[in-house]
Amino acid sequence: MRSADRSVTADDRVDRVASLLRSTRGREELKRFNTLVVEVVESLPTLRVLRARLHQRASMQLYVNASNAKGLASCRTVSLSVRVHGVECGIVTVAESNAPPFAPSNRRLFGHCGFDDLAGREWAHPTVARYIKAAASQIKGRPEAKIESALIREMKRPGGTWREQQPVCLAGLPLQVPLPVRASGPDPELGDGHIDVLARVGRGGKRLRVYELKAPKADASGALDQAVAYVAALKFVLVQQVPTMAEAWWRLIGFRARPRRMPAFEAFACVADTPKNRKLMVAAIERLSSANTHGVVLGATYYPVDPEWPGARASQGPPPVWGDPPSADGAPRSTAAGGPGKRPCPPAGGHPRPRIRWSRKQRGFLVARAEQDRNRNPHPRQLYGAKDHQTNPE
Asked: How far apart, in Å, are the Cα atoms of 178 and each of 43, 80, 89, 191?
């Protein structure tokens, strides 16, 4: 994407996307995507059953395409993409009855990894495992795809610093949410677009965060503009449609139904941690925030630039993708409306535990329970074997 216009604001991006989707062609595109999403949501139970029949292998990730996931309720078969470092190395077809067969792909890259020995092999065959391991060590991968893979893996890691946000998946498989708007050019336009990574932040998905990823050497000046355009399209299909159509979109991104309390929509750019990119992100946030009546939360997060990556060994994998951790006073260090962050990596001790927020009803219950305990025992210190500090008359 070329450098963004210095005068474009967040409202300009949102209004542009809304006008595109309200046009005659936009309504047709929206109808086509609504049909796709409804079919995918109806196929979710079958997809979960089929996914449970397939065990995960090391050094690879399984991806599902929304077009392949539709219609599962009738055909009961799905094709999943097998990727190493973000590059597809094969297709595994899962059905309810037969053993899942594996078909290698991309001979140009993986022809020397035992490509011709996989004819008619099943997914559980040792030859398939050796092929995937050799493919992972053979290729460096596309930088942007490796960043996406590392970001999703960091979010899913138990006990990690990114555990408060979870990527939107389809039956546990990473999903690039399809949208009827493409924002890869200088201006948003109608077409087959998708979100790089959509994450639900907070308990219950209180915030929906759209990540636009950029490779280390890519131009990051328009990354935040792209994220705002995708946020506008996502908010349109979730909020400004007929409720029956919007219901399927809410279920696609992991909600059981439309929430009573609307989550906040956030646009984030994920770029390499360089002084140039930090200046670009601060400037982009200031420019877009100058007119932001739609309330889109703007921000940026950074990943470390490793000189040995992406040429690192496949056994090690790509480096972890870190955002800027909270500061000591609780303020986020990631670049947002307040300015650039100061620390690109999390502290050794991790994040402090979040403070528990009690509701009014819970607080009232706790106060009443404490009052009952005091009435039962005037000296609660004695319950724990503490000495009575009153003067002994004896």
From this structure: 16, 17, 23, 10
